[in-house]
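User: Fold this; C-alpha cells only.

Assistant: Input:
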Amino acid sequence: MNISASLYKLSISAILIASYCASSHAETPLIQKVSPPASIVPLAMSVGGRVSVAPARNPGNFGPEEYVSRWPGTYFSTKFKGSEVYFRIGTNHEILHIVVDEQSPLKLVNPEPAIYRISGLKNSSHSIRIFVVTESQDAPNYFGGFAIQAKEKPLPLKQQSRQIEFIGDSHTVGYGNLSPTNACSNQEVWERTDNSQTFGALTANHYHAAYQINAISGRGVVRNYNGFIGDTLPVAYPYVLFDKKQEYHDPAWKPQIIVIALGTNDFSTPLHAGEKWKTRDELHTEYERTYVSFLQNLRAKNPNAYIVLWATDLANGEIEAEVRKAVQQAKEQGETKLAFIPIDHLQFTGCNSHPSLEDEKTIANKLEQFIDSTPGIWQGK
C-alpha cells in the first residue's frame, strides 16, 4: 500500500470527510451513513483473511450474505467505474481503514452498523479496499459487502498469484504497534493496534501477495501468557472463528510461504503452582513435541509451502533456543522446506513492550532478505 498523505483522524459517528493531499485525483471523498437508493446492486469483491459466510440479517439491496471474521488482518476489495460506492457494516467493535485508489486511508472507529456511501469521486475507475486493523478476540465483526447504482459499472478483480500466511501471537497481530509509550491501558492497546502496518502486511505488500494473518495475542504453543487458561494457537488454528464450530477449508488458499512466530507466551513468564509442568524441562519437552506436530499438520495441508519460523532473543534466549530445537526435530523427521530466522535486538517500544512500527519494518526486512535469497520459494503453489 502506497500511503502518500497524512492520515486524517476524524469523528465519524454519522459522517467522515477526508481530502487527499498531493493527489492527482483532486477529489474530496465523503463517507456518510445513508439510506441507499432502490437501484443499487451488489458488487463483486475479493476477501483477504479467514471469514465465515452467513445469511445477511438485513440484506436490503445488497447481497444475501455477510462475512463474519475474528482472526486479524481481514480485508475486502472491489473495483468499479462510477462516482460513488456503498458498503454495509454489521455488528462490530473495530477500527476500519478505507483506502480509495491507493491513497491515504480514511479511518472509521467503531462505526455504527449501517450502510455507508463513498461519494465525491470522479466518474472514472476506482479501487476500494477496507481493512480491519484491530484485534477482535471478544466478539466477531460483520461486513455486508459492496454495492453500486445500476448506472455504474463493476470492474474485474485481479487475482493475486502469490499467497503468504502469517501465524503467531501478539507480535504477529501488531499489538500496540502505533504507541508512543510502553504503558497502555486496554483501550489504548485497541486504539494503537494497526494490523495493516505489521511485518506481515508489509512483507505481503512488498511482493504484491494476498495474505492471511492468523494470530491471537497471549496464546502460545502449549502455554498461554502467564499460564492463563484458554485455547492455545494450535488448538484454535483449524477453525474459521474462535467458537470451534466450523473448520477452515478454502481450496483457493494455497500459500507458497507460511511464516510462524510462537513461543513468547510459552516462556516469557515463570511457571506457577498448579500448572501441569513441574519443571522448565517438562515445558520444553511438550513445547517441542507439540510444535513439531503442528508443523506436520501444516505440511499435510500445504504440501508445497515453504515454512519459516522466527523468534526473538527475549526471555534470555529461551524462546529462540526452543524454536531452534523444534526446527531441528522437524528436519530430523524428514521436513525439508523449513527454515529458522533469529530476529534479535528489537526495540519493543510499542504497548506493554511489544514491537514498534520500526520493529515491524525490521522484521519485514529480515523476512524479505530470506525470501529473496531462496530460489523458487514462490513456485510452491
